[in-house]
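Regression check, adenosine-5'-triphosphate case 322:
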Amino acid sequence: MKKIAVLTSGGDSPGMNACLRAVVRTAIYHKIEVMGIRHGYDGMINDEFIVMDAKSVANIIHRGGTILKTARSKEFLTLEGRKRALANLQKHKIEGIVAIGGDGTFRGALEFSKISTIPIVGCPGTIDNDLIGTDFTIGYDTAINTVVEAVDKIRDTAESHDRLFFVEVMGRDAGLIALRGGIGVGAESIIIPETKTDIEYLIKRLENGRKNKSSKIIIVAEGDEAGGAFKIAEQVKTRLPDYDTRVTILGHIQRGGNPSAMDRVNSSRMGFAAVEALMQGKSNVMVGIIDKNIEYTPFENATKHLQELNPDLMRMVSILSL
Ligand code: ATP
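Current build output:
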């Protein structure tokens, strides 16, 4: 293998830069040329290819976001768009691709492989941790730490005013940020899409738990079936009008910030392994870390299912909260 390309795609996540750095430096070590593709699949279609050298990834390991920039590409969803992307890859003589992104990125890679023989290896860059084949995705640990830091601050004001706060965190389909973040802040309840939301039960627990603690934090994953923090707060407020209720949506701060040490180390390991996987002839697989070891999971399997929630964690949450 003489030349590879690397791109970041889908939602950005802290640690993508660390992964990119590892890809570029591993390739250079093995005397493989590297091109960066800006703006994800859009850049593949619009020929935004740039030469990467060891220096181009200097001083980025600690930076959030992605220096290559990213995009959600509508054109890549079309065959026409993918054909243009292939023509550009052929023009630049690219023999392998490292795609850093989430499940959509890998679904796109699979679709692309129907018209292209260029091998693709993925690194799981998404804060959601919603992929099979890795214990932790790139950015997940940082996002949880951001949630914990923000909610600790909310707890101070909640406690001072005896308030009930509903804090909405990211997670359209997966409640893993809510679950871990909620455990980390000692939330009184955690509401996630994977479990049925029982408002009556929540109200009963809030009534019963009043004597234990004057402030209360309820963490709500944005994708919960009950309709997010505002809707749930409204229902609770009608039934428990004495509670001084507030809602905070954490939003995009959860995507940004310097990656945690764990994200930097995991991203570096996965970027390093992705290049070596291409050299070994692997394709259409995602690199992951399972029980501390590097593992490769075919894209089909990585994107098919949500991670199952650990039943021990769920049981613990119900015992420790309220
Ligand atoms: P995140 O988990 O952070 O949202 P993601 O990789 O899942 O990241 P998406 O926007 O879902 O983000 O996917 C990235 C891009 O992959 C899409 O914008 C689209 O261009 C491409 N893609 C997704 N699904 C397909 C598909 N079935 N066919 C072709 N391309 C696809």
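Comparison notes: Residues 140-255 form a domain with the Rossmann fold fold (CATH 3.40.50.460). The chain has a mean pLDDT of 94. No diff flagged against the previous build.
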